[in-house]
Every structure is written in structure tokens, then in C-alpha cells.
Amino acid sequence: MKQLVLFLFLSIIISCNSQKKKPLGDSEFQREMNAKFKDASKSPLTKSGLRKFKGLDFFPINPKFKVTAKLIKTPDAKTFNFPTTTSRIAKYKKYGEVYFSIDGTDFKLDIYKDPNPRIDYKHHLFLPFLDETNGKTSYGGGRFIDVLTTDEQKDGTIIIDFNTAYNPYCAYSDRYSCPITPRNNFLAIAIEAGVMAYEK
Questions:
Q1: Model pLDDT for residues 134-163, shown as the tens digit of each residue
Q2: Pairing relation of β-strands 124-129 and 89-102?
Q3: I need a surface site. Which of 45, 66, 152, 161 has the fewest CB within 10 A?
Q4: pTM for the full predicted model
Q5: Taking a C-beta distance cutoff of 8 angstroms, is the pair 164, 146 a contact?
Q6: How many degrees, rounded to 5, is the angle at CA 175 between CA 196 and CA 129?
Q7: Span 174-186, mean pLDDT?
Q8: Adjacent-strand bridge partners of 70
Q9: Residue 66 · residue 161 · CB < 8 Å
Q10: Strands 79-83 and 66-73
Q11: Distance between CA atoms of 126 and 7, rounded to whole angstroms?
Q12: Which of 5-9, 22-26, 35-39, 76-80 has the lowest mean pLDDT?
């Protein structure tokens, strides 16, 4: 009898430990985000926020928010000053415009590129956007999506997955300086995908 009780006790402990170690999230993107936010060396959270952190809130993954967009490049675009939430000025070039449809409605967004990126970001494009969830179920200042130039197809299309939309670090702490999403990148639709609002 004692052996049975001991076995059950050990099984419960092992089960609890395995549950604690289970990565949080329903997709690779969600699991990577939660892992980064839990890591004190990478997390944008304050010390208080890090202590309370149990995982980011995400909208349910929705295939309709993963779209194939037509990319029209603007190769002659000049570098310009991109305003931020502080006095810092970010430098970007307009890389092009992406055209896509959701639920039969057509949309357009401007997409940008850092003219002098770090070597590990040389293929990264910057896609900030606003939508009808801002200030309600998502961060009021808009969200960002990372797109890669290496994902461009020969037919001039590129995949944009709003399920990977994330908040700028300013949503988590005032110590960051973040690019301000241009008003012309507003989508007149509720993009219920990606990271939701964070309560400090």
C-alpha cells in the first residue's frame, strides 16, 4: 500500500513538473514570444512585470489573417525620418506597398526597411499597422509584423501573417523608444490576430 501511495505521489510531482516546463503557446511564434518574455536577459518587461508574467495573451489563430499580398516595390524611395515615442528619430526607407484582401475587402499597407540594418536584420522588413482593435483588445499604438525579403516570390507576392503581429516594446515599459505607426497604415477592420493588449 505504501509503495502505491509513493508511486502516485511521484507521478503527480512528475506531471506537475512537466506541465511547468511545457512551452506556452499554440504556435511556434507564440511559444518563441513567451520564451523571450520569460527570459530576464531578453524580456522588455519591467522587474515587476517579469515576476508576474505567466504568458502573453493572444487572439486565437485564424487562417483568414494569413494573406498572400501583392508587393509593389518603391526602389527610388528616399531615406526619411520616422517619428518615435521619444525624441529619437528612426531612419527608414519605404520598401514598397502591399495589397491584399480579407473577407472580400481590399487593403493596402506601406512597408519599410532600415537602410543600415545590423547584419542579422539585413533581410527584415518593417510592417507597422493600426486597426479597429487598437485601444480595445489590442495595444492602442498599433502593432508590428516582421516580413522577410527572402519570402518574396517570383510572381511579386509575399505572405503576411497577422497571427504573428506583436506589440512594440513601449506597450510593456516606458523605457523604450518605439516607431510611431503612420496613420495611413490604418486598416478599417478588426484584426483579431496576434498579440493582444498588455495590462501593466
A1: 999 999 999 999 999 999 999 999 999 999
A2: unpaired
A3: 66
A4: 0.85
A5: yes
A6: 40
A7: 95
A8: 99, 157
A9: yes
A10: unpaired
A11: 53
A12: 5-9
Dihedral of the CA atoms 130, 160, 64, 69 (nearest 10)?
Answer: 100
Q: Are 125 and 149 spatial neighbours (Cβ–Cβ below 8 Å)?
A: yes
The amino acid that residue 85 corresponds to is T
- Please give the grid coordinates belonging to residue 197: 493588449
The answer to whether the beta carbons of residues 162 and 144 sit under 8 Å apart is no
In sequence order, the 6+-apart residues with CB closer than 8 A to the CB of 38 are: 50, 53
CA distances from 188 to 130, 132, 137 (A): 9, 6, 15
pLDDT tens digits for range 38-73: 999 999 999 999 999 999 999 999 999 999 999 999
Q: Indicate the residue type of 189.
A: I
Beta strands in the chain (DSSP E): 66-73, 79-83, 89-102, 105-113, 124-129, 143-148, 157-161
CA dist 128 and 79 (Å) reads 17
Q: Which three cell numbers stand for residue 138?
A: 489590442
